[in-house]
Write a structure and sequence with these properties.
Blueprint (H helix, E strand, L loop, with lengths): L2 H32 L1 E2 L5 E3 L2 E5 L26 E6 L4 H9 L6 E7 L3 E13 L5 E6 L11 E5 L8 E10 H10 L2 H60 L5 H6 L3 H10 L1
Antiparallel strand pairs: 1-2, 2-3, 3-4, 4-9, 5-6, 5-9, 6-7, 7-8
């Protein structure tokens, strides 16, 4: 592969990476600044919340089989996409009836203080008097005995333990990026430094273009001066030949040849 092709491929790859980077930056700004916020600060866009998992309670465990479930294990610092439960009673009832064992919910729960948790449903039962009893637990168990479970009774009015929504997807790399961007060093390394580099590269491109234009103009001026100098030399040479009584080269070429004329006369 020649150097021109390598250079072209490198330029295309750099442009693609630049566009991806800009798209991620725009998405991050949208999520962190323009989106609606939940009571605990989670961003909400089009009925979905985007949350970063801050514990390893949903990490992979040899004691939990999640192979049959849509949402598998969720590593720490992953971003989860949470479909927010409807506010109205009919919508909430329909939401609860659609839940199954193995679904992952994000919910608010009170221990000593109220915290936000993302765990898997281990049991869901409809109450005869209305509402549901939902039991949840994390996947990351240390033994067959399991771990601490949470129980939410949806029939209790203004319950401090309540469901926020259902996890419908996750993105580990995006979660890492957003987590990193939330720190000052992340903003510096992933936004300020690349932006500075981009600006510097653009400045270098402008300087290169201006330099090329300057060289082109200098070359054109040089060629023009050389042409004028050559013309001046030719005229000086003609003047010198006239002074010495010699005909200029172009004039000699125009004079008829006497020998040729005499030959033509004899032929006639």
């Amino acid at each position: 592969m020649d150097k021109a092709k390598v250079k072209k491929i490198g330029k295309i790859a750099l442009d693609v990476l630049l566009y991806i980077f800009l798209a991620i930056c725009i998405f991050s700004v949208f999520v962190t600044v323009l989106s609606k916020r939940d009571s605990d600060g989670a961003a909400e866009v089009f009925g979905y919340q985007m949350r970063i998992v801050t514990s390893d309670s949903m990490s992979e465990s040899e004691f939990t089989d999640v192979s049959a479930y849509k949402i598998k294990d969720i590593p720490i610092r992953s971003m989860v996409f949470v479909k927010v439960m409807p506010d109205d009673k009919d919508g909430a009832d329909e939401f609860y009836r659609s839940l199954n064992v193995g679904d992952v919910l994000t919910f608010r729960y009170v221990y000593t203080t109220q915290v936000t948790i993302t765990h898997r449903i281990t049991s869901i039962t409809e109450k005869e008097t209305g509402g549901f009893i939902i039991e949840l637990a994390g996947d990351n168990k240390s033994s067959e005995d399991g771990q601490l479970t949470q129980i939410i009774d949806t029939s209790i009015p203004n319950n401090t333990n309540y469901v926020i929504g259902k996890v419908t997807g996750q993105a580990y790399l995006l979660g890492l990026l957003i987590s990193f961007l939330s720190q000052p060093v992340g903003i510096i390394l992933l936004i300020i430094v690349p932006c500075f580099i981009i600006i510097l590269l653009e400045i270098l491109k402008i300087v290169k273009v201006l330099s090329a234009d300057k060289k082109k103009r200098e070359q054109e001026e040089k060629e023009k001066k050389e042409s004028e100098l050559e013309e001046l030399r030719r005229k000086l040479a003609e003047l010198e030949m006239e002074k010495s009584g010699q005909a200029p080269p172009h004039a000699a070429a125009e004079e008829p040849n006497d020998n040729e004329e005499s030959k033509e006369d004899k032929t006639e």
